[in-house]
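Fill in residues.
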């Protein structure tokens, strides 16, 4: 017999799904309708994208140096797709690569202004 079932054996096996389909068909015949109302609950807000998670992610992304997507999904123990859905659908933002803007301190800016003319002279003298 092996892994494959014979045709006669396969037809004689009734699964729970098959029984529930037969019961639903009988209910439909008695009610004279094509479909019976489903016993599924209506879908609401996604279970992982709770308002608390959305608010926490919004707080983390609102600063001058926001966390990366990988840092966010490690912090909140959800998938990267969930983080991307929160950002794109709930916060209506765009998920993009993070590039941190280099900001000079005041001392560095003064030093660059002081050294800039000498550096230009150095480059021009080498030509």
């Amino acid at each position: 017999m092996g892994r494959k079932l014979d045709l006669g054996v396969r037809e004689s096996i009734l699964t729970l799904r098959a029984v529930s389909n037969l019961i639903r068909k009988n209910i439909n015949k008695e009610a004279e309708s094509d479909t019976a109302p489903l016993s599924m609950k209506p879908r609401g807000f996604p279970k992982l994208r709770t308002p608390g998670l959305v608010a926490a992610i919004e707080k983390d992304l609102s600063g001058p140096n926001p966390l990366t997507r990988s840092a966010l999904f490690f912090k909140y123990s959800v998938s990267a797709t969930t983080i991307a859905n929160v950002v794109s659908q709930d916060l209506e933002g765009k998920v993009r690569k993070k590039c941190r803007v280099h900001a000079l301190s005041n001392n560095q800016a003064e030093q660059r202004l002081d050294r800039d003319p000498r550096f230009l002279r150095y480059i021009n003298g080498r030509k």
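The chain has a mean pLDDT of 77.
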